[in-house]
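ugh finaly. both done.
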Amino acid sequence: MGAGEQHVVTSLDDVRLDHKHRYRWAARQAKGLRVIDAACGCGYGAAMLAEAGAASVLGLDINERALECALTHWTRPGVSFEKHDLIAPELPEVDLVVSIETVEHLPEPRPFLRASRQAAPRLLTSVPNEAVIPFSRRSFPYHQRHYTRRQLRELLEECGWVVEDWWMQKTKLSRVKLGSKGRTHVVQARRA
């Protein structure tokens, strides 16, 4: 993820509401699990996962400025942060990989998704819905593309994932709900 798009914040009050809702959704499914928060940015999501009951959370990001913020403001018991490049990842074994707003930033997401499959039996991910928010380089300079439901399903299946449930956010203010017609696809998948 480009440094220009990361949300470097020191308080949950400053986090975009749509991002908070996605992490709250993920946190409900992470209780008692060992979790990787891929492209964790400044770390608020990793902290939210831990505070909701994840057994441990490893936040990974390539951006040193974001990791400095994470270590300074979002360290919690059971949370650690590491510099890690998701373009060519080797990931430790965990129970769950959380990938909120990551895949659309990667020039080639397949190595990350395959490494996630090797690391964990479950994946929670979210991406912008191309059918609702069409991709353009001008509007989204840090994104590589957006995905229709079919494109995202095919990508995940190609990388060894089976989509269990489609969730979505209808607007920037919406909570995550079952369905697939919102502005953001939110997916729960299991290892094939």
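ok and the 2nd:
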Amino acid sequence: MMFANFLYNKFVEWLREDIPYWDLTTEAIVPNTNVRAVIKAKSNAIIACIEDLIKVLEKLNIKAEKYLSSGTFVRAGDEVATLIGSAKSILSVERTLLNLLIYLSAVATTTRMFVNTVKRVDNRVKIAATRKTIPGLRDLTKKAVKIGGGDTHRLSLSDAILIKDNHIRLVGSVSKAIKLAKENMSFIHKIEVEVSSVDEVIEAAVAGADIVMLDNFTPNEVKDAVRELCARGLRDNVIIEVSGGITFNNVMEYASTGVDIISTSIITMNPVKVDMSMDILGEASC
């Protein structure tokens, strides 16, 4: 319930962006009547976060007569949801609602594509998101990633310790950064370190990192790092994540290197094109 109220308040803010005063067109020509409207897919997609958006619509006195659940695969032409409510209300929320549903479904769809591709190589490897998300939409975006079958990774800076290149630059070394993290943070927080060379991979594993992120490594460099960890008896001590430059064209190659996690910002910042539309079907009684 708390999240529903939180999302409703956000949605109202987003509506104000589209309707700072009033909807001139609707106010001028649309009668005050109740109508039925249908949302249709215009492309293949995985539906995401529709339940959250339906709860928001209910607070705006727009009822969902029926809708497909999140995670459902749709093809162009499929009906995603049927809404009943005031014609003025439905027309006023149309663009904001569709923009959110389209983007979130695109995230889920892209995630599912990556997940299915990786499964063809190694069913053990997970696809994860990053913190590269549109401000104000992280909660829904991460939920869409999960719906698509991906791992959310950190939801925020408060989730876990992730020591990145700038942290290391300020502290002086990978091992010193890990030592400080262990001394100053609670035992409950895992420690991940972003590294840029095989030597740093080994340094991080020896210093006690839980997760080592290989940043912008080529597939061959990743294999070298995994082999070196195995040779030193350190492979089972760490989770190996690879990130940076991951695309549909190379994700299978990375999945075959022996890593545990592949994280990419493509699924949240540059998802595949998804489209939907809304049509008024006619008058309806609420």
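summary for the 2nd one i guess: The longest helix spans residues 87-119.
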